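ugh finaly. both done.
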Amino acid sequence: MHYPWWYVPFLTAPMLIALVSVFHVYVSMYAVGGGLFLALETQFAYRRGNRRYLGYLKDHAWFFILVTIVYGAITGVGIWWTIGLASPLATEMLIHIFVFGWAMEYVFFVLEIASAFIFYYYWGRLEPKTHQIIGWIYAFSAWMSLVLITGITAFMLNPGAWPQQRDFWVGFFNPQFWPQTLARTGGSLLLATLYVYLHAAFREKDAELRALIGTRSARPGLLGALLVTVSGVWWYLALPASAQAALAAASALNILMLLIFAVTVIVFVMLYLGPYRHPGWVTPGFALLLFSFGLAAVGSGEFIREAVRKPFIVYDVVLSNQILAEEVAALRQTGYLEGGVWTRAYVARHYPQAMNEQGQIDEVALLALPEAERLKVGEVLFQYHCNDCHATAEGYSAVGQLMRGWTPELIRLVAQHPEKAHFFMPPFAGRPEEAELLSQYLASIAKPFPPGLATGGE
């Protein structure tokens, strides 16, 4: 109610956020794990005096910077752009609650960027010891960025005692902090291995050196797979009860959970039996297969993490329709349209006859409007109250499809009490007259009962 809605046709705004963020996570995890790999392996190559390996690591560092700094920066800005438009209230809350955390993250981010460029562009011009130190500065800075971002994003899923105590550190070290930090660290190590294989399989022609790369890089991947598996169980145990229930109630999420663990085990076995035990397996086909498995596991994990927060964006703080949880009771008294700056301005401009002498919206007068106008008001209610999760007649989670064959009475009941139809939907935060306007609009876009199916004798 604090911001206007943003409509993304067919796809919906949350799915656009998911697409941009998943592609960013693929790179940001590589930025962490790849940084640790480069720091460790550069140190190893210097100590062994292996100039051929150093040459490969410099070549990989160029690929690493191109992907993580250039592409990563673009997708990072894309995340802020999409969440600022699609989830402005939740974004505002996270900025205000964790302003000190964001400040720390930006410091480490600047240090990360600067050290990455020094590490690559001063390669061969710095003393080996200094060069190694720069590599470790980057690795530590990148990992600290992961830690700080994880504390904030984990807060969205389970803020712990923060709603009662309102303390920065209570919110940051929330019940989800440690399992998600371990999971993301493990995922970073695993993805880094897969990126290294992919790069080495296509760029390195020396079989002996490629075998060394396979053996050396398999170790962090194996460790990462173990961390992902263990921390995944811990993550589930640290979920709020409603999130566990949402996970259990959605068959698609159960399939994705199974996919994550199955793929992680498969990758672990392939890493162990392949590059770790038989380094000659670092081939383009094998590398592409492993890389695809890794992307599937990470993408599934991100989707599940976002999906189980319902009916919240920030658990117990911001509902999925951009309303503070504490505002619902008041909006049911004053009216949903009256409670928002933008909705109130819309009604005052288009339906001045529905404004009373005190300048407030008269919901009963809205119900007296002609049908076409009632449907327009109902559409406004839908866009503000439901658009954050649902498309209209067509698209992702389109209500027109979900209500196929519903009777007007059933639509009205769900509009009045959506949380009773599905516990992971937020409650309707408006007056009964507004629920009626919304139900009339929903009935107008509901698809008919599929022909040829039994309808209970009707």
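ok and the 2nd:
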Amino acid sequence: MSAMLPSGASLYDRVQRVIPPIEWPTFLDDIEAILVLKRQRNAVVLAHNYQTPEIFHCVADIVGDSLALARKAMAVEAEVIVLAGVHFMAETAKLLNPEKTVLIPDLKAGCSLADSITAADVRLLRQRYPGVPVVTYVNTSVEVKAESDICCTSGNAKAVVESLGVSQVIMLPDEFLAQNIAAQTDVEIIAWKGHCEVHERFTPADIRQLREDHPGVTVLAHPECPPEVVAEADFSGSTAAMSDYVGSQKPPRVVLMTECSMSDNVAVEHPDVEFIRPCNLCPHMKRITLANIRSALEQNRHEVRIEPEIAGRARLAVERMLDV
């Protein structure tokens, strides 16, 4: 490690609990190049909680869940934003920063939820349920957002639904998130049948086995998990809420029922907590790497562009969410 640049050495100190020493040299060249490129291009990297630790803790300037990234993107002063996440997140960053260059390192970094519904589907729902407002999860394409009244995230969905002051809403596309929110509110929720390919795989049996294998473990579940999984858990919340729970409650042993890298990233902040890791990887999040973040900055690829008419309507739905 003696040959490391000082910045590299200090960064490894931060992630040494989750990145083995033998792996670190394979990351270092890209990390150092990205740090230089960010300065040269007046760029920032926004990284979702599901990014791997070498991205999340070593090159990202702003990190968080979808809601945090959306809010913080509005205050970015840099000329270039690299979104280390999936495509809908890059679109949201572009909506909120129309004059900035927004780059997504891999165009194939998609989302099963975003793929589960189209703008035409939303128009048909409006015909079937005239006058019922449409609340759309941010895990959707910009075209779907443009057909919606307001967006939400897993962290603010209940507040958004109740802010409308109506007795019935359409909530799409995540069926399980809609069902979990419906259990917390008197508002009737009409759901779509989209699912997250990561969270839908968790089962109540998984939790029972974890409790048997790891006595005393605290189970935290993302609200994209099926309702029966949420019912078995000790706490359910967005990735930000789960991270805050670990920080405030300090459970001796914890399991996060969500994407794999989340546990690694939270573990860096809480060395006194033991993390049990049932691993469901998001193949789309894992398309983002240090190498393609570097390429994005070097080659200005792949720039996110949105048609102005669609952007205007979609931006309104996102801004309404941010006002709640």
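summary for the 2nd one i guess: Residues 1-6 have pLDDT under 50 and may be disordered.
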